[in-house]
UniProtKB/TrEMBL annotation:
Residues 1-23 form the signal peptide. It comes from Marixanthomonas spongiae. It comes from the Bacteria. This is Sulfur reduction protein DsrE. The lineage of its organism: Bacteria, Pseudomonadati, Bacteroidota, Flavobacteriia, Flavobacteriales. It holds the Pfam family DsrE. Keywords: Signal. InterPro entries: DsrEFH-like, Sulphur_relay_DsrE/F-like. SUPFAM superfamilies: DsrEFH-like.
Length: 140
């Protein structure tokens, strides 16, 4: 009876471990990243991190996305605060994404969001969807 129980447990752990590994091996074995942040000034160290990872990983480096959510979302419409980060992000291959839910909550006019910034309906949901595709994720 013990052998049957242990064999079943081993089989289940092996199966679930394999499924998790397969789910994370998407996008041609590239390392993809997503960072969720609430503050535009944090883009500076985030972009520097993306540049370092790109240099370190070479061809294994995939996509790097930054999702901005929360109260500080209004800063993306301030040209003085965001334009330098947009240029640096583009050069580093980093995509900046804005949370539409936060834009709505804090009454930010989407027409004022720079065209280089992608807007998604729900930034937190978008982050989870990317994680399900195997993206490595961190929130700041």
């Amino acid at each position: 009876m013990k052998t049957y129980l242990f064999s079943s447990l081993f089989l289940m752990l092996t199966l679930f471990g394999t499924l998790t590994t397969q789910a994370q091996q998407t996008n041609d074995n590239k390392n993809n990243y997503v960072v969720l942040t609430k503050k535009v000034p944090q883009l500076q160290p985030i972009i520097l991190t993306a540049e370092a990872l790109k240099l370190e990983e070479g061809d294994a480096f995939g996509e790097f996305k930054v999702v901005i959510c929360g109260k500080g979302i209004g800063d993306i419409t301030n040209t003085e605060k965001i334009s330098g980060f947009i240029k640096k992000a583009k050069k580093a291959g980093v995509q900046i994404v804005a949370c539409g839910f936060s834009l709505n909550k804090f009454n930010i006019d989407r027409a004022n969001v720079p065209k280089e910034i992608k807007v998604v309906d729900n930034g937190i949901l978008y982050n989870f969807q990317l994680q399900k595709k195997g993206y490595k994720s961190i929130s700041l």
